[in-house]
Design goal:
By secondary structure, the protein is an alpha/beta fold. Strands 1-2-3-4-5 form a five-stranded parallel β-sheet. The protein has a three-stranded antiparallel β-sheet with strand order 7-8-9. The protein starts with 5 loop residues before the first strand and ends in a 17-residue tail after the last strand.
Length: 256
């Protein structure tokens, strides 16, 4: 009898680390990231492996950075749907590049039942009707999120209680895929970006999906605190504004 496969509730990944906006305290560090594009080869290898491990991934969110900056975004969307035909798949975007996307992109979204997950920031709100003209014409499903605040929650000292931080974490279900590894969230997955920028040492702790590992072992891994949780602290919220790329936009203990 074959072993029953598990279902991963959620997965997100970056097509690009960089973005065409400059948001203060972006928790994916896009305002301080170098230009970077996910390779198709790496992506296909990871998707194939995940489809072997899991029966399905309930929700998949294609992100950045700004994912529409990737010249192969249509192909990435098509391949995501090919590997996971029953998933709810969305593309997270700030919408700015939607008027520049070609007919193949919109045909792909429509035919593969892909949701546009559009974040509306104060700087883009007035232009949003123009940005959404084409996707509305093409009958693409759109989900809106008005973003008025960002937050910081990184304790660079790494001395927080990991269990306490995990329990109260508002992104602990945001499982992240990067370079063949599954992470609890975006912080350990993208730690290299903020570490390099501000000379920090936030650990990159994930689980390698290409090792001999089962879906249940991955689910068990993400259901418990990570040592990286000790680098989180109580969330501090602030109004959206453009970044000055200073470490106090992310660090709650930057003065220590």
């Amino acid at each position: 009898m074959s072993e029953t496969k598990d279902i991963l509730p959620y997965l997100e990944f970056h097509l690009t680390d960089h973005c065409n906006l400059n948001c203060k305290g972006c928790n994916h560090f896009s305002s301080i990231a170098n230009e970077n594009y996910l390779s198709m080869e790496s992506f296909l290898k990871d998707m194939k492996r995940l489809s072997e491990i899991f029966l399905n991934i309930t929700k998949i969110r294609i992100m950045g950075g700004e994912p529409l900056l990737h010249p192969l975004i249509t192909k990435f969307v098509q391949e995501t749907r090919r590997f996971f035909p029953y998933s709810v798949i969305s593309v997270a975007t700030n919408g700015i590049l939607l008027p520049a996307m070609d007919v193949h992109f919109y045909n792909c979204l429509f035919e593969d039942n892909i949701i546009l997950d559009v974040s509306i920031y104060p700087i883009t709100e007035k232009q949003m009707v123009t940005y959404l003209d084409l996707p509305i014409q093409r009958r693409i499903p759109i989900r809106f999120t008005k973003v008025r605040k960002f937050c910081k929650s990184i304790n660079a000292l790494g001395n927080s209680d990991a269990l306490s931080m995990y329990i109260q974490c508002w992104v602990r279900t945001c499982t992240f895929l990067r370079e063949g590894k599954i992470y609890h969230c975006c912080l350990p997955a993208l730690s290299d970006i903020i570490n390099q920028k501000f000379n920090l040492a936030i650990p990159n702790i994930g689980i390698d999906i290409h090792e001999d590992i089962s879906g249940s072992e991955i689910l068990n891994f993400i259901s418990k605190p990570s040592p990286v949780c000790s680098y989180c602290s109580k969330t501090e919220w602030f109004p959206w504004e453009q970044s000055n790329q200073q470490k106090n936009e992310w660090l709650t203990c930057s003065d220590k």
